[in-house]
TrEMBL record:
Composition skew (Basic and acidic residues), residue ranges: 45-63
Record region (Disordered): 28-63
The name this protein goes by in its record: DUF2933 domain-containing protein
Top-level taxon of the source organism: Bacteria
Highest classification ranks of the organism: Bacteria, Bacillati, Actinomycetota, Actinomycetes, Pseudonocardiales
Length: 63
């Protein structure tokens, strides 16, 4: 009985880690499509805004 409990304790860590990895990979596949495209579009808009702000702050003739 004691050896059975020891075997369960030894197997609990790798089995639990495998389950967590599987669940994380499953979650990434579901949310990676639309949200990443949306994030890229948002970042591009932010870059455009920063470029426009930089152009308005520079004195004329200085670049």
């Amino acid at each position: 009985m004691e050896s059975l409990l020891l075997a369960l304790a030894v197997l609990a860590c790798p089995v639990g880690m495998g389950l967590m990895m599987w669940m994380m990979m499953r979650g990434q596949r579901k949310g990676s499509g639309d949200s990443s495209e949306q994030q890229v579009a948002q970042l591009r808009a932010e870059i455009d805004q920063l470029k426009a702000d930089r152009e308005t702050r520079q004195p004329k003739g200085a670049q």
